[in-house]
Amino acid sequence: MRISRKKLVLLVIVSSVALLNAGGNKASAEIRLPHLLSDHAVLQRGGPIHIWGWNTPKASLTIRFHDQNISATSNKYGEWSAWLMPEQAGGPYSLIVDGGRTDGKKEVTDLLVGDVWIASGQSNMQMPLKGFLPGAPVKDSAREIAAASIPLLRLLKVGNGSSDIPQQDIGGGTWAVSSPKTAANFSAAAYFFGREIVAKENVPVGMIDSTVGGTPAEAWVSLDTLSSNPDLSYATHLYSDFTKTVSHLNAQIAAEKAEDEAATAAGRPKPQHEWHPNAAEMAPAGLYNAMIAPLAQAFVRGFLWYQGETEANEVRGPHYSKMLPALIQDWRTHFHQGDLPFLIVQIAGRTGRGGGWGIVRDAERRTLSLRNTAMAVTRDVAERDNSHPADKQTVGERLALAARGLVYGEKIPYASPLFREATTQPGGLRVWFDNADGLTANGKPLEGFELAGEDHHFVPATAKIENDTVVVTATGLDNPVYVRYAWSDFAPFSLYNSAGLPASTFSSEEIPVI
Questions:
Q1: What are phi and psi of 259, to 5 degrees?
Q2: What letters, b where the CB count within 10 A reaches 16 and e where it falls short, cover 214-240?
Q3: This model's pTM is above 0.85
Q4: How confident is the model at residue 228 (pLDDT cuts 50, 70, 90)?
Q5: Residue 444 DSSP SS3
Q6: Are 435 and 483 contacting, i.e. CB atoms less than 8 angstroms apart?
Q7: Residue 364 half-sphere exposure, CB side, CA atoms within 13 Å?
Q8: What share of the chain is helix, strand, coil (3-state, %, to 5)?
Q9: Distance from CA of residue 147 to its chain's centroid?
C-alpha cells in the first residue's frame, strides 16, 4: 500500500506528539522523594518516621522499610504522606516506595536510624572544615579533614536559597557519609558536634547544615511569627531601609569588577571592596521559607544555632533579646515536636565592629529562660581582629557537652557560670552564679567586671572570688546599682568554673543599654 507524501508527514507529526506525550506522562508519574530521603539518610529514632513525596494524583502505593509495610494514596496534586512506627537506632536499611504498574518503584539505600540535628545560622556556623580561604582557616584543618571518615556520621548540606513562600523541598543537597571529601565543605562546628555525639553516644548521627553567611535572624523566622509579634516589627522597617541602600547595587558591583580588571591588566593588586549582602537572603522569612520550612516535615533531635554577628550593633542589638526567643518558639511550633532542644553558640567577639557584641551575648544568655535550651560560651576562642575564630573544635565540643547533659541525660557538668543575681555589699556588689562550683581565674587577675550607678554609666571595677561568688568594687563608686561582665566587643575575661567552662557575658540591668 502506497502512502502519499502529505499523509506520511502527518503520520510522522502525530507519532512524534504521541511519543512526547508518553514521555511526559512517564515523567509526571515517576515517584519522587524529598532530598531529606536520599541514599545515606539518617531517620530520627524513637518517634514516628515520616515518609512523603510526589507521584501520580489519586494513585495508591506501598511503602516498605525494615520490617514495616504501609500503604498511602496521593491527593489530587500528587502529594502523599505516610507514617512508620518508631524504630530503634540501627541499620543500614532500604526504603522502597512501590507505585505498581502505574508509577513504578523508587528505592533509597543505606539508611540509618539515629539522631538528626539541624545546624543553622550565619557564617560562623557556615564556616566549612576547610575554612574560608584565603585568610580564615579552621584550626588543624588538613589533619581534621584527613580523619573525617566516620561511617555513622551522615552529612546533608542544604542548598542556599530564599523564597517568598514556604517550600515543600529544599533546593538542593543530598545525604553523604562523612569522609574527607564530604566533610571538607561542611560546617566545621556542626561536624565537630556530630563527631562527638557519635563517639560518646554510639548512635548514628545525621547533621543538617542549613546556613547562610551575613544574614539577620529575621530571615530565619516565619511570617506567621514576624507578622503576629509587635516586638518584631522593627525587622520589616530595617529591611525597607536596606532595600533603598542597594538600589544601585548591580551598577556598583559592575564598577568594582571593572576596577579589578583594570588593576589586573596594569599588573596591580585588586583594590579592596566592601562585602555586599544578597538582598533576597536579607528578606524577612526568606531563608526560613526555603531552608527551614522543608525540614519541618521530618522528626529531628534538636537544633544548633550560631548567629548574631549581624545583630552586633546599636540598631539591631537591643532587639535580639526578643528576636531569638521568638525564632526558637517559631521553629518548635512548625516542627510539631514540643520543646525541641535548642543549643546556642554565644558569639565570641572582635574589635571595631559597632559596639553591640556584649548586648547580643547577653541576649543569648537571657534566652536560656526558655526550657530545654543550653549555650556554649566561646569568649575564650575569640580572635581580636577576626569575626571567624579558627577554633571550631572547642565550639563543637561545648555544644556536644551541652547535648550530652541536657538531651542525652549524662550526669556531667555542661553549663558555664551564668549570672543569677547581684546583692548589695559595703562599697560594692556581690554576684551570684548558677553552675558556679569551683569558680576560678586560673591564677590570673580577675578581669572584665564593671559597675554603674543609677545613671548606667559603667566604670572598670576590681573583683575577687569569695566562696563561688564574686565581690565587685570600684574606686569612687560607693553605692553601685548595676554590674556587668565581659561586655565590650573584645572584652577581657577570666572567670571559669571547675569544669573549665568560661562565664557568660551578663548585665544586671533589666534592659541593658549599649
A1: -65, -40
A2: bbbbbbbbbbebbeebeebebbeebbe
A3: yes
A4: very high
A5: coil
A6: no
A7: 31
A8: 35, 25, 40
A9: 24
